[in-house]
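G., the chain you wanted modeled:
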Amino acid sequence: MSKLAILIKTRTQPGQRAAGYQLFEKHLAPRAAQNQGQAAAAFCLDETDPDTFYLFELYASREAFEQAGQQPWFWDYMKEAGPLLAGQPEVSLAQPAWVKGLPQ
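Predicted structure as tokens:
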């Protein structure tokens, strides 16, 4: 099984990025910390756009990613985050060829 990287670019309504981060801390960060199938996760703030953030996740496999997306807490997050967003997030899936600092 190949690892799977998820890159998500999200733009919030003006001034709502901090609220988006609070929801990430509430719903996603605790699950990421406990998820054995997720090797890495990072919430990143865009340096030039105060309403944009990026989420990077690295999963052990596509199955681990799909399993995380089916959990009720993920949909709780999406329900709360929806009103903060300025459109649909841009989601990219990729197979990492090399990763520093994590087991290959």
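The chain has one domain: 4-94.

Shout if anything looks off.
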